[in-house]
Amino acid sequence: MIIQAYHLYVEKIDRTKNMARFYAMSIEPNLFGEACLTRRWGRIGTNGQTTSHHFATEREAVILFLDLLRRKKRRGYSSVARQKDMARRELV
User: Who contacts 3 (Cβ-Cβ below 8 Å, separation ≥6)?
Assistant: First the structure.
C-alpha cells in the first residue's frame, strides 16, 4: 500500500545545443498492491520512452526514486513550475 504520492517532472533545456529534455517519475500501486516506480524520459513535446520497476515495499521504490532524482539534479535537470502557478505569479 502506498502511503504518500510521489511525482516528479524535471527538464533540461540548453538552446545552444538544441537540447530540450524531460524526465518524469511517479510511484503508484499496481493491481497487486506492490509499489511501481514508472519513469518517462525524452525530448520535450514527445511521448518519450517509459519503463517500470516493481517493488515489494514502498521503501524500496522511494530509495530508487531519490537516487534517480539526485542523478538528474547533478546532470543539470531542474524543476518546472506549472503554467497555472506561473500565471498566478504574473498577476501578483
Answer: 58
